[in-house]
Structures are given as C-alpha cells and as structure tokens.
Amino acid sequence: MESPNASDNQCSFCGRSREEAELLIAGQGAFICNQCASRANEIVKEEFKAEAVSKAKLDDITAVSPKEIKHYLDAYVIDQDKAKRVLSVAIYNHYKRLKRIAEGEEVLVEKSNILLVGKTGTGKTLLAKSIAKKLDLPFTIVDATVFTEAGYVGEDVESMLSRLLQVCDYDIRAAERGIVFIDEIDKIARRSDNPSLTRDVSGEGVQQSVLKLLEGADVLVPPQGGRKHPEQNLVKINTSQILFICGGAFDGIEKKIASRINRASIGFANIALRESTDDDLLSFIQSEDLLEFGLIPELIGRLPVLVHLNPLSEHALRRILTEPKNALIKQYQELFAMDNVELVFENEAIELIAQVAIKRRLGARGLRNICEKILLDWMFELPLKSKEKVRTVTADHVSACLEDFAD
Q1: Residues near 189 by Cβ (< 8 Å), separated by ≥ 6?
Q2: Nearest to 210 by CA among 168, 170, 174, 157
Q3: Average pLDDT in the 127-132 region?
Q4: Contacting residues for 92 by C-beta, under 8 A, at least 6 apart
Q5: What mean pLDDT is predicted for residues 237-260?
Q6: Per-residue b or e along 112-142, where b marks 16 or more CB atoms closer than 10 Å to that residue's CB
Q7: What angle do CA 128, 129, 131 make, to 5 degrees?
Q8: Are 220 and 324 in contact (CB under 8 A)?
Q9: HEC profile for 315-342?
Q10: 146 to 24, 36, 178, 328: CA distances (angstroms)
Q11: DSSP label at 10?
Q12: Which of 116, 141, 171, 222 is the most interior residue, by most CB within 10 Å?
C-alpha cells in the first residue's frame, strides 16, 4: 500500500498537523487524527443506537392491533365507525411494512396513502391527530390551499416536509417515518370549467408536485421552509416511508355521484340510490367521482384507501359535547374551575347547541364557536372573582346569546 506524502502530514478531516495532533493515523492517501477518529466512533455508535431505537419503536407500534387503535379512537372521536376501522387497519399495515423494510425483507409492500372525504366538522383532522398521538409519531398538518406552482406567490409543496422535519427537531430518520395530513386537498382540483384566462397555478400543477411526494422520492427540502433558492442549504428526505393522509370536503361531488348512479341505474333496482339525499350519496363515492371532480388519475391512484365520513347527526353532536375525553364542555368546565367556579350545562341547553350547529351546517367544528358566544361574557367576568361559585347554562341563556343565529 502506498503511504501518504510526508509533506501532507495533516488530518484530512480537521487539517491538524502532526505536531498539533496527539496521534495521526495514516490511511490510503489520507490521514486522520485521534480526535477525529474518536468523533467518528461516536457518530457510528449514535447511528447504530438510533437505528436500534427506531426498530424498537416499530416493534412497539406493530404490537398495537387495529382493534386497539380503534378502541383508542372511540375515546376521542364520536361515530364514524367505518372510517375508524379503515384507518386503524391502514395505519397498522403501514407500520408492518416499515418493519419489514427495517428487517431487510426482499418483498416490498407498497404503502397505502389515505383519502378522507367528508363535510367540514365531521372529524377528518381529529382522526389523524388522534392516531398520531396514540402511536407517538411525528405528525404535521398542512393546508393544500397555500401551495402554488414554482415561480408563483405561495409555498412549494416541499414545505410540508419542512414542517415535518421541524416537528422531529430536524431528525431526518424520524421524519421519514412520520405522518403528513394534507387538509383541503379538494381545493387543488383542476378547474377545467373555469372561464378565467389566468393560469390555474394552484390546481393541476400542484397535484403533479404532490404526486411526487406521495409515490416516494428523494426530495430536497429547505429546513426552515419557504421557497427554495440557490443560497439555501437543502436537506434530502426520502418520502417512500412517510404516510400521507389527505382530507377534503369535496363540496358538490354529490351531484357527480348522483349522475353516475343514475347512468348506471336500470329498471327499479336502484330507485333507493336515485332518491338518496346528498348526505347519503357520499357513502357511494368512487374514484371516478374524484376524477370528475378534478383530481388527476395519477394522484387518485396514489391514494388507494378511500374513506368517507358521515355527516354528524344532532345526537352525535350532543355526544361530542359531553362524552369524549377531551369533550368541549369538559374543557370549558376546566377553564372555569381554574377560577373556582363550577360550570353546569342543562340538558336542554346542550340539545339547543346541537340543533343550532345542525341548522347552520357547522359540524363539530362549529360547536366551539357557539360555546364561545354563549360563555364570552361570563369568561370576561371570571377574573373579578365573583361570589357566584356556580354558573348554569340554560336553554334560555343559549337562545339569548345566539339571537344572531336565528333564521
């Protein structure tokens, strides 16, 4: 073996000379000092330790059965049983797949990204958040409406990975096994019937960019987010192991479903389908309806798990207010308790709140807005330490506070 030139006797990593280093080890055409060798050893140990921790994490996740995942979701999400079952199985299968990859199995099982379709306030985001919390996974929510094609005002789609990376404290290995929830995915549908002559910079072009992430690729990501530019350091993230969950309301897709059903109906066999309401029609959604809505075929193909969420009934909204571990009424009761005031809701008041949410088609998300209106004045007075130690929300109080909600 040819020894390095004696005149270049310095560490090839840090540049220390033989006189500055305690020990200089010669290799093939290079030197390394004892300090760099020690640091390299630490890095190797950290990498193997991180790999072992990551594998142990996968073992913990795959030890949780789909039934256990659904049971956990039941404590936080009311109704939507079918969606919870589908999600539980999809998440479990995804991490079984990651475990096989970590064990070096030759048979590659492709990941199954998920598309949640449901009206606003039906629990799409809550389902994704609850799963991430249960499995203690890196998780981030992004809004598809902020993305535009490169060169236009807005964000690159790669910025969603920047947010995931930030959640992981810039641990690339952890980020590459996380979950990204893309909300409002329906807002990037191509507008073929748009009469405007301006370019659809947040439509089909963005879908093409999202497609690259969903199918799995090495993506250069700006760690701090924002647009990429030549002077910014970029980090490479492989998305083949990241699970993407997309959600959207897809307003108006019921008409496309009804049209397809009517075209397929023969005789009296499908009269029930033709007479279904918009809320019922969503349960018959298929990939071709998404195509008609404006999603490109390639994107639909990368979202093989299609789940619809049912609109919430008045009974479900009442349960959402009181039953889950993080029920809205429990949250406000905790806030009042901090000021030594007991907050009580009468059953008639809870029923009226649910009725208002149904009437205004606000879903579960609108319940907080309604409660804020009802309790605003009381919360304003709380710091005054009123002598009243019990505040009771009655139906009359709800009606008085929500006069502007009347038809």
Answers
A1: 203, 207, 293, 294, 295
A2: 157
A3: 85
A4: 62, 64, 65, 66, 69
A5: 89
A6: bbbbbbbbbbbbbbbbbbbbbebbebbbbbb
A7: 65
A8: no
A9: HHHHHHHHCCCCCHHHHHHHHHHCCCCE
A10: 54, 45, 21, 29
A11: B
A12: 116
Nearest-10 Cα torsion for 391, 397, 398, 400? -150
Q: Say how far residue 355 (Cα) sits from the centre of its chain.
A: 29
Contacts of 95 (CB under 8 A, 6+ apart): 58, 61, 62, 135
Q: What is the pTM of this model?
A: 0.74
Neighbours of 340 (CB within 10 A): 10
Which tokens belong to 18?
């033989």
Q: How many C-beta atoms lie closer than 10 Å to residue 27's C-beta?
A: 11
Strand partners, 238: 218
Contact yes or no for 122/311 (Cβ under 8 A): yes
30 pLDDT more than 90: no
DSSP calls for 102-153: HTT-SSPPPP--EEEE--TTSSHHHHHHHHHHHHT--EEEEEGGGB--TTSS
